[in-house]
Structures are given as C-alpha cells and as structure tokens.
Amino acid sequence: MSEIKNYKEALTLPIFSIISKAAANLNVECYVIGGFVRDYLLQRGIVKDIDIVAVGSGIELAKEVSRLLPDKPKVQVFKTYGTAMLRTEAIEIEFVGARKESYQRHSRNPIVEDGTLEDDQNRRDFNINTLALNLSEKHFGNLLDPFGGLDDLTTKTIQTPLDPDITYSDDPLRMMRAIRFASQLNFNIEEKSLAAITKNKDRIKIITKERIVEELNKILHCNVPSYGFKLLEKTGLLEYILPEITALKGIDEVEGQRHKDNFYHSLEVVDNICQHTDDLWLRWAALLHDIGKAPTKKFHKKIGWTFHGHEFVGSKMVYKLFKRLKMPLNDKMKFVQKMVLMSSRPIVIASDVTDSAVRRLVFDAGDHIEQLMTLCEADITTKNPKRFKKYHNNFKIVRHKIEEVEERDRIRNFQPPVSGEEIMNTFDIKPSKEIGIIKEAIKEAILEGEIPNEHQAAFDLMLKKGEELGLVVAEGKRK
C-alpha cells in the first residue's frame, strides 16, 4: 500500500478549518477538490475559487459554513444541480454533494444521482482535476489520488479518468477544456485522448456558442495562445468553430510564386501581441486581422499574389463571426472591426512618414492609436534580421511622428474649431448641406496641414468657403 501524502500546508486559509468544523457538526465527509488542489501543487499562485465536495448534502454544508462565519455570507442555492455557493474574503466557494452522472446523446447536461466520493471523482474531466484533500479533523490534508493525477502533473499530461471516447462524447465541452488546460499549463494531451477529441469533434455542435467562446477567451488569455489554436486545428475543432481562420491555412504556388501561410502567420501575430498587452479584444483583433485574405486572394501574372481590400472585407467578416458565435455586438466588436480595418495603415505610411498621413492616421484611430501601433508591430513576423530591424525602426519613426503631430495639431478625437451652430449664426442659415460642406473643408484643410487646428484660421476658411457657396455673412458677424 502506497504511503498517503499529506498537504496540510495547502489548507492554511481560515476558511478550511471552518468548513472542517461545519462538516463535523453535520457528520459528513468533505473534501477540497479540483482546481484549488491542482494549482496549489503546481504553485500557480492566488486562489480565487474553491470547490468542496460533500458525501451528503453540499447545500446543507454551505449553510452550516455560513452560520459559522462571522459575517454570515448569503448562500446561493442551485437546487436543480444540488449545488450552493458563498463568497468570503474575495474567494468564491462552491459546495456540491458527491454524485454520479449519466448522459443522453443530444445533451451535455447529465442525469445526476447521489454517489460516493469515488463516483464524483469518476465523473470529473481530467486526472489532474480529480485530486482531493480531506477536510475531516482526523485526516485533514490527506491527498486522495485514485487516478494518478499527481503523476500527470509531474509528466505534464492531460488525460481522462475514464475512457476518453466516452468522456468527450458525453460532454463535448471537455474537448475544449482539454485544449485550454494544455495551453494554460503548457501540458501535452495524452495520445488516446487527443485521438478521441478528433473522433468526437462533430459533437461540439451540441455545445452553446457562449460556452465555446468562454474557452476561446481563456485560450487567448494564455501566454502562448498559438499552442491551443494549433491543437484546435489539429483535432478538427477549429473548422467547426472558426472556419474563417482555417481558411487561411496553406500555401499556394503558381508559376513559382508563393504567398505565406496566413494561418500560422496570424497565430504568430497573436503570440507576439501577448508579450505587450493583456487586452482580450486586441488579442482577438490580432487573431482576426487577416481573415479577409482568404476571400480576396488572387494571382496576377505580372505582380503575383494580391489580397486587395482584405482589411475592409475582414472588418465586415468580424461582425458576422461575432454574431454567429453570440459574442458582444457592442463597442468591443466595433473595436475589433476598427483594428482589422486599419491594420495595414501604419505599415503603408511607415516607409514615407508625412505629417498629413500621420494626422489622418491619428484622426481615424482616435483613442485606439496605441493599440493599433501595438497590433502593427506584432504583425512583423519576418525571419530576415535586416528586414525585422528595418520595419521596427520605421515604426519607431511613425510613433515619434505621432507624438510630434499630436502635440502640435491635437488631432486625436478631433472636434472642428468652428461648430455647425457658429456657421449657422454667421451666415444666418438653418441646418443645410452647406454646413456639412464647410465643416468637411475645414477638417480636410487641418488634416492636410493647410491651416493650423485653431479657431481663427478655421473661421477665416469658413468665410472663404461660405462665399464660394454663395452664402452671405449676417450683419455684425464677420470677425
């Protein structure tokens, strides 16, 4: 019989002693299980949530824990699932009664029955999430590891407690979770498990879009998201979830001319940008910045491969993709669209940095100019050291020029120095197309550097443009 390992040192938070006392009061066994134990053993840092399994009623245990806590936190009860939740000291604690599960093919929602701790560990997704620490007073801190989860942590392996084919077919979201954990922890998915994901990939169709996106977001939050996306592609899941991305895969060759593989390029851009920002939506923009290249790809004998207008086409595709996946269609989607639409603008002006081009870039990007520059710098994936250095130096020049122009011309979040109301008062006219013409002329003149971004210069141009349009200055309004 192998020696029982004890990890009392993992249970120093006061809440564990209180849970232990509550369990003793109710005469039930209970254990802390899953992510808390896994992350403690991996030394992954701050605890945000704790899962407690009781061999008995998880709801009653939660209520008893609340009664023993000084602040008597509210217990949220989910009767349908037999679970309860309470929050204390910024930690969310979920209580569940030990259970066994069975599944019907059309749904990932299990039929639940009361069970033993072994039943509960059997139903869990991966060996590394079956690890449990005993919270009883007598065996406090003892590790229960029936599936060798500790060994899997050592070998950095993701595998299922039971037959992976059944595990993934029963709850197809586990396929996404396997890839997400592999990406987060830099683990390998065991060979049979990986084959089972490929075999069951079409089962992902029964999973709600919201749950799929939740896992995609977690993969994008990883330090190296490409690891997860390559696994999604290898298993065939990505074709179901993001066909716009898999459409970029491959290199075509005509008359000896080839283009780069835009699938792997996009993943490299995501990895690059993750070194500089935690912004989830900027990471989405990096992933999607080239999706317009698949539908716009053409070969011309004289110039080779082109992707004309791929930024515009890609920005339109962003909306359809977000809508299909039931992602937010608010300012977050509009931000990703904007980044995709403008993704080539700084690159175009980098070789010839004029004040006018920079003013227009800042005007169009507004508050998002910094994110756009970060995206464009991440887009440099050339393996030629000279080109890499040259492109980055060009972007340094663009950044310097942005600061210089912005300080002088104040173009970001531009508001015309002359308002529509002032134009109406000056010429004593009502709302009309002439007002728009004059405002546009002033904006263009400022962006082109023909006049400074100042009221008097703009007012003088307004008078001139009004005269050209046949407008007459009202009495006493000429300055």
Automatic annotation (TrEMBL):
Cofactor(s) annotated in UniProt: Mg(2+)
Top-rank taxon: Bacteria
The HD/PDEase domain, residue ranges: 258-381
Metal-binding recorded as keyword: yes
Key word tRNA processing present: yes
Any single Pfam family the record assigns to this protein: PolyA_pol
Sequence similarity: Belongs to the tRNA nucleotidyltransferase/poly(A) polymerase family.
Keyword set, alphabetical order: ATP-binding, Magnesium, Metal-binding, Nucleotide-binding, Nucleotidyltransferase, RNA repair, RNA-binding, Transferase, tRNA processing
UniProt name for this protein: CCA tRNA nucleotidyltransferase
